[in-house]
Design goal:
There is one protein chain. This protein has one domain: 6 Propeller (Neuraminidase). Helix content is 7%, strand content 28%. It has 7 helices and 31 strands. Strands 13, 14, 16, 17, 18, 20, 21, 22, 23 and 24 form a 10-stranded antiparallel β-sheet that branches. Strands 8-7-12-11-10-9 form a 6-stranded mixed β-sheet, with no helix packed on it. Strands 2, 3, 4, 5 and 6 form a 5-stranded antiparallel β-sheet that branches. The longest helix is centred in the first third of the chain and has 9 residues. The chain is globular. It starts with 29 loop residues before the first strand and ends in an 8-residue tail after the last strand. The structure holds MU-OXO-diiron and calcium ion (3 copies). The site of one calcium ion has 4 residues, from loops. This is Tat pathway signal protein.
């Protein structure tokens, strides 16, 4: 229904302009500071950061390529808490002294003697730069945020022991030489987005894990679908960890080719131990992280929980960020009770995949063994099979292939669920559908839905498109009143491409983070804020050169905002790298140091709510 009076505007700041400078830009009246860059010592013997830091040092230092993040207050404080953040991946050339002078592009590893293998300490350092950091931080008297030495400080890495829980635990799919019972594995990798649970723990997503492995399958002995459908390569893994010179089990496991008598004697199943959501209790430093298999196996971008209600199931949403992949939700079998709720709620329940119908309605399709054809006749033999092969099962049910589902968020005011669809250059005119309306979708969009009767456990919903990226032409933004596809175009205050990180604050401001390679006319990757009531969108922050903005969390009083700057300077070409001409030197601006992924703290100079 039309509203008689426009709602009050949520966004009180003046939009910042696009920027191509090697710096952070925030609105007038705001300030920022950089904390915990890659290599900051947080635990153990507190090894000082340098490019000469060893693989063991790295296990006590903040990891690389900061991504999803959440602030866990200590006793409700807004000045003291645990900052928990993911480290998605690495740029080996920026990590090793041995890379100097070589022509290495983004992702390249320093040259090594193929007869000997990759230097063991380089491989160890790279694996230990992955995972999650738990860092206690506090606001000092002078207003700055400092790392606090604390027993909570912890690094979780690509080598940390993890438990497998849920229906896949103990199944034949996850038996390995490391865990012949199929109950455990080592490490978490490519942790992109994250999400806090309603009971105070942290979920880290495993996104582009497939490329870390290899399966040297042959035509006569092809890779199983649980490898092939996810893109496990037949050549070397992305950093060649399986080529480590010492041939030790912790590195050789990245070669998932069959090379033993059975699954219990080799690592053919190692990739099946990845692609999950990992639960970590930041307040229990001795706890073993748990891979919650009931939430499905895919390229998890992140997770967002719906608000919980006593006596109702717990519901969470997760996107699979790859071209033409799907959006999922999990509904727990058990119900929420504030006094007893814990991660075991995530071990039993129903995983659904979304179908977005052309008429603006949608359906959640259950991924349940034995139902809707997910049985032996169609190649599915157990619930573990359905979950290990989540993508294949979702294909079978006819889910809607999306333009790379990234982060989700829930509007606390009305329960609307928002998901970013970052881009999809490969969608053809024939593949266009109402929910993914643009062929060669370079700039992405944000889809939104309301579950039937505002019940997050419902199996049907109504959806619309909240925002289309781009500079003009087809760009646009909707409001809560209803989408007008000919409505407001994006303009100088808010032009954006490739929305990725997404968060809705307690006042319903929609924070949108860019991960875009397109700089003209968008400038460096930025963070914008939308008011879903009025449709206003304003650019709040711009990052340094060749970065993406990701990760977002606030203190409970909303006076301090934390975001991450990931991979600054990643566009440095091989020739520029060899010559020492990095396109960014943020944040150190020291010619002896590479650019470093870091967390940025932002506050309003008058002490007000950030974004107000
Ligand atoms: Fe790791 Fe989909 O961004
Ligand atoms: Ca992302
Ligand atoms: Ca992205
Ligand atoms: Ca990224």
């Amino acid at each position: 229904p039309p509203v008689e009076q426009p709602p009050a505007e949520l966004l009180g700041f003046k939009a910042v302009s696009v920027s191509s400078a090697d710096q952070i830009v925030v609105p007038e009246g705001y300030s920022h500071a950089v904390i915990i860059p890659w290599g900051t010592p947080i635990s153990g013997a507190l090894p000082a950061f340098s490019l000469a830091s060893t693989g063991e040092d790295q296990a006590d230092q903040v990891g690389n390529h900061h991504d999803g993040m959440h602030f866990y207050p200590i006793d409700g404080s807004s000045t003291d808490g645990l900052l928990v953040l993911n480290h998605e991946y690495i740029e080996p050339r920026f990590m090793h002294l041995s890379a100097a002078g070589q022509s290495l592009g983004s992702g390249g590893v320093p040259a090594f003697d193929a007869q000997v293998g990759r230097p063991v300490d380089e491989v160890l350092k790279e694996i230990n730069a992955h995972g999650v950091s738990i860092v206690r931080i506090a606001k000092a008297q002078d207003g700055s945020w400092e790392v606090v030495q604390s027993p909570f400080n912890r690094r979780i890495t690509g080598l940390t022991r993890m438990e497998l829980t849920g229906p896949v635990r103990g199944s034949d799919f996850v038996k390995t030489l490391y865990s012949p019972q199929g109950t455990a594995t080592r490490g978490t990798l490519n942790n992109c987005g994250s999400g806090p649970t309603p009971w105070g723990t942290y979920m880290a997503a495993e996104e582009n894990w497939a490329g870390y492995f290899r399966n040297g399958a042959t035509e006569t002995n092809p890779a199983p679908r649980e490898h092939a459908r996810y893109g496990v390569p037949s050549a070397n893994g992305r950093y060649g960890w399986e080529l480590a010179a010492d041939g030790s089990d912790r590195f050789v496991r990245f070669d998932a080719s069959e090379n033993g008598a059975s699954a219990e004697t080799d690592y053919r199943n190692e990739p099946n131990c990845f692609g999950w959501m990992v639960e970590i209790d930041p307040f229990d430093p001795d706890s073993t992280p748990k891979k919650r298999t009931a939430l499905g196996r895919f390229g998890h971008e992140g997770v967002v929980f719906a608000p919980v209600t006593e006596g109702q199931p717990v519901v969470c949403y997760s996107g699979d960020d790859s071209r033409f992949e799907y959006i999922y939700k999990f509904v727990s079998a058990g119900t929420y009770n504030a006094a007893t709720a814990d991660g075991s709620l995530l071990d039993e329940g129903t995983l659904y995949v979304a179908r977005f119908n052309e008429d603006g309605t949608g359906t959640w399709l259950p991924l349940v063994y034995g139902e809707n054809g997910l049985h032996e006749d169609n190649g599915f033999y157990s619930q573990a099979d359905v979950l290990v092969n989540t993508r294949t099962a979702a294909d079978f049910l006819g889910a809607t292939p999306m333009d790379r589902p990234e982060w989700g968020a829930v509007d606390p005011a009305n329960g609307d669920v928002y998901f970013t669809l970052t881009n999809n250059s490969r969608r053809t005119e024939e593949q266009v559908n109402a929910a993914n309306p643009r062929a060669a979708n370079l700039h992405g969009h944000i889809i939104r839905w309301a579950e039937q009767d505002a019940n997050h456990a419902a199996t049907s919903f109504e959806w619309d498109i909240f925002l289309k990226g781009g500079d003009s032409g087809e760009s646009g933004v909707a409001t809560n009143i209803g989408y007008d596809p000919k409505g407001d175009r994006l303009d100088a205050d808010n032009v954006l491409s490739s929305p990725d990180g997404l968060w809705i604050d307690p006042d319903s401001r929609v924070w949108i983070q860019m991960d875009s390679g397109a700089t003209d006319p968008f400038g460096n990757c930025a963070m914008l804020v939308a008011d879903p009531n009025t449709g206003t969108v304003k650019r709040f922050l711009v990052g340094p050169i060749s970065n993406e903005i990701t990760g977002i969390t606030m203190t409970p009083d909303q006076r301090t905002l934390f975001i991450n700057v990931q991979h600054p300077g990643s566009g440095t070409s091989g020739a520029e790298f060899a010559a020492g001409n990095y396109v960014s030197r943020w944040p150190d601006f020291d010619d002896s140091l590479p650019p470093r992924s870091s967390t940025v703290v932002i506050w309003k100079d008058d002490g007000g709510v950030v974004g107000s």
